[in-house]
Every structure is written in structure tokens, then in C-alpha cells.
Amino acid sequence: MSFKSGDTITKVLKKVGADKLGKGVNETVKKFTPSNSSKITMGRAKRGLYGGVHIKFGDQVSEDGGNRTRRTWKPNVQEKRLFSYILDRHVRVKVTTHALRCIDKAGGVDEYLLKTPYQKMDTEIGSYWKSTIEKMYEELEIYN
């Protein structure tokens, strides 16, 4: 299944509200979203923060005979509540342990989403929270 950026953009803009977004946020969302044919993402990765981790395929080799058995390695997915300081609330999301390490390294879920470019953001949830956080930052800069 391919990643449909047009569908994602319309869903994100519908949830956040295109008229509520600032001038720059709406343009950057459309500008930096990958094209329809550029990326393939597994289905459940679209519903969480997976940090680029996908199902891996390979062979399990027996020790004695060297027999090869085809198998898959699935990502280690956890359901977590991550605290967003800009939204001042917990966000419940499915996240891989790799993405959790990336979030810790970035300094929190807000910073992780802001530092991750839209080209690498292969989830609808991630794009939604990123645009929401960018909108909140723009509102805070206006009032300061």
C-alpha cells in the first residue's frame, strides 16, 4: 500500500481546520509532504509514531542442518501516553521503542514532531499532531 499524501493533507486540514492554521504552516504542510508514489508504509504504521521502523523479512537458519525457514520480525509497538508541554495534556499514541528513544533524544514529543520533517513523517497522526503543535507555537509567538 502506498502512502497517499493528498488524503493525509485533507484529513489533517479537516481535523485542525485550514482557516485556523497560520500563514506559513499550511504552505509548509503541503510543500513538504511526500508525493503519492514516493513511499510505501505498512498499514498499522499510519496509526502511530513508528520512527521509520517497519516489518523486516528474512530467514531463520537452524543450527544443525542449516535449514532456512522464512520469517518476519515485527516492530516492538507499545501504547503510551506522552505528555505534550505545548498542548498541556497527555497524548495517547502507539509508538515503537525506537521512536521512544528518538523522542527522549529530541527532548520530548513536541520537539520530536517539530524536528521531524514532513517527508519523513509517514503517519496521519504524526502529521496531525505536528501541524497542531506548529499552530500553537505560532499563536504563542503572536501573543508574546
UniProtKB/TrEMBL annotation:
Keywords: Ribonucleoprotein, Ribosomal protein. GO terms for molecular function: structural constituent of ribosome. Gene3D superfamilies: Ribosomal protein L28/L24. It comes from the Eukaryota. One of its GO terms (cellular component) is mitochondrial large ribosomal subunit. Coiled coil: none annotated. InterPro entries: Ribosomal_bL28 (IPR026569), Ribosomal_bL28/bL31-like_sf (IPR034704), Ribosomal_bL28_sf (IPR037147). Belongs to the bacterial ribosomal protein bL28 family. This is Large ribosomal subunit protein bL28m. It comes from Papaver somniferum (Opium poppy).
